[in-house]
Amino acid sequence: MSVQIGDTAPDFVQESTEGPIHFHDWIGDSWVILFSHPKDFTPVCTTELGAVAKLKPEFDKRNVKPIGLSVDPLTHHGDWSKDIEETQGAALNFPLIADADRKVADLYGMIHPNADNTMTVRSVFVIGPDKKVKLTLTYPASTGRNFQEILRVIDSLQLTSKHKLATPADWKPGDDVIITPAVSNEEADKIFPGYKTIKPYLRTTSQPSS
Ligand code: BEZ
Fold it and tell me: Best substitution site from 35, 37, 39, 69 to test ligand 1's pocket, by max atoms within 8 Å of Cβ?
């Protein structure tokens, strides 16, 4: 069974570049992006980990902790991290899980045998402080992820966890947002005064400031 949106993120204890990770304890009150990469010392993965290291201040602003994973041993992670710093201009500033025994990869369904039987695909799990899975994404080994898009999704997830709102296609922070169908017009008048009705089922309002 794959891990699905709404599930409690499977808990685990596994080695990482920052010591053993007791996953649920490590999450604490933060949001988390858990992402797998296929293999250490490979080109696309090198650029991805550099990209996440550079975006760390943006994750911090949103109270999101990044954590990477591959089914490589800790010694490989250590040696490879020097290459990441040298070639990407950013040192690793978040833990990388060394999942050599595939414990976490199997728990989360990160190995897709018909794609490759030995490496993880590029999985992404965004997990909330309630330990529930909020988003899953799967990319093949050949395509590096767009971490700006992942930040954008996190902005939407955090906004819609606080308000009875949804975000439209291609939404960016600051754009108008959608009032969810569960909100009656009477309630919408109170919570979102001045909202627009484009169709009875399509009502928009400006993004709340907090
Ligand atoms: C890469 O990160 O470049 C990569 C890893 C595994 C297969 C293909 C590409």
Answer: 39
Q: Once rounded to an integer, what is the mean pLDDT over residues 127-147?
A: 98
Residue 115, ligand 1, Cβ within 6 A? no
Read off the pLDDT of each residue in 16-44 and give the average, rounded to a whole number. 98
Mean pLDDT of the 18-42 span: 98
Q: Are 136 and 3 in contact (CB under 8 A)?
A: yes
Is this prediction's pTM over 0.90? yes
Q: Which tokens is 188 given?
A: 């919408």
Assess whether 45 carries a catalytic annotation.
Answer: yes
* Mutational test site, ligand 1, from 37, 45, 119, 143, max ligand atoms within 8 Å of CB: 45
CB atoms within 10 A of CB 48: 21
pLDDT of residue 1: 67
Query: How far apart are the C-alpha atoms of 134 and 27, rounded to whole Å?
Result: 14
Q: What is the DSSP letter of 177?
A: E
DSSP letters spanning 80-147:
HHHHHHHHHS----S-EEE-TT-HHHHHHT---TTT-SSS--EEEEEE-TTSBEEEEEEE-TTS---H
